[in-house]
Amino acid sequence: METVLDSLIDSYKEEMLQSVQELIRIPSVIDADTGREGAPFGENIQTALKTVLRLSADMGFETREYDGYAGSVRYGTEGKEIGILSHIDVVPPGNGWSRHPFDPVIEDGKLYGRGSLDDKGPMVAALYAMKAVKESGLPVSNHVNHIIGCDEETGHRCIKYYLTKEKSPDMGFSPDGSFSVIHAEKGILRFRIQTEWKEADTGCLHVKSLNCGTVVNAVPNCANVHLGGPKDELDAVQKRFLETGEMENCTMEDDCLSLNFRGVSAHAMQPWLGKNAILPMVEFLRDVSLPEEEAQFFEALHALFADGWEGRNMGIACEDQLSGKLSMNLGILKLEDRQCDLKVDVRCPVHVDLNMIWKTIELNCRKYELKAEYWQKRPPLYIPKEAELVQILLNVFNEMTGMQEEPIVIGGGTYCRDVENFASFGPVFPGEPELAHEADEYIAVDRLVETAKIYAQALYMLMK
Known about the structure:
Helix content: 25-40%
Structural class: alpha+beta
CATH topology of the largest domain: Aminopeptidase
Strand content: 25-35%
Largest sheet: 8 strands, antiparallel
Number of strands: 26
């Protein structure tokens, strides 16, 4: 390893922290309402993209924007193109924060804020790794192109658009996963169920609205239902709810009873680390005397999802030796103006047929008169452990940390499956919690610096 790169990264520490904090302050959540030509994902994401390109230009790099879909930061022109794939968009903050998600703060050596870990912190670490290689004077034969997307969390339209304008880099990594190095990612299937409920009879108990979850790729930690109907029936439901000990999560106003069910958030790729707030709500509503249509709906949800995240009731539970068990997350359930919308995220083992999983889901939903439609079906990623790229990244990580790790498999989905010969590389270290998409997301300051050093060494090895 080259000590000059480590020294340069140490000298950038304060500048690097300021850059991450500046980007966190921009709430770069996709916003269709402010989307327009040149800013397809909304004004805040466009502002964040322009900010990171300005920071990159200040470092002396050549930058280019691709119609608000993506940006690129380049160093050099010779030899092979080594790519870095990161993203500027973030998921909504959700509930449960003890700090303001877009007002970054450093406490106890940790930088808190939405995007600190996914993916603004690692993206900045990779940019300063590029700066270290550039300023080190070390000889290189290849050049680097850092592609920054704007739509990683909601569909990867950004990278797909970029690839209509430019060729894919020859090889590279994404700072958007875990260390040591990820050589396989599970397949991803996302589907929705939409139903239209009849106009409610206000003379009987009924569901007025549902508001559960914010994004499909996170376990919802809060589920809210508003019930309407006769006062005496609402009083009876409230009494039964209070018997569960959830007194602070129940309010009555006029002819409306609001019930809030609490869970524990987690990334959809690891739903077993969370507790889905929708499931206890469904369980509770099954025992409420609702109109037939509504009662059948909650019975169907219970039958299909109540067993948890493995998908056994849905008939899709499976696993393989490489990537482990299939997981399923009921991430969003909304009811507004009698229009009901439910969204589900499924992570499928690498060696299992996604099409067969989808056919099984369709059939099982149909048994309960529910029509399931998928809007995203992304095949898995697999690179052999012995591949040159995987071995280069693995050796850098192990030498820099003194660990003896092996390549790993994740349930998450990164840009790496959109291009050839790319692997996800950090920033989460072995044994440390995955805080992406969670409340109080943070990256440890020392880990941010260490990650930048690892990226600098890996980048130099690929550019030599």
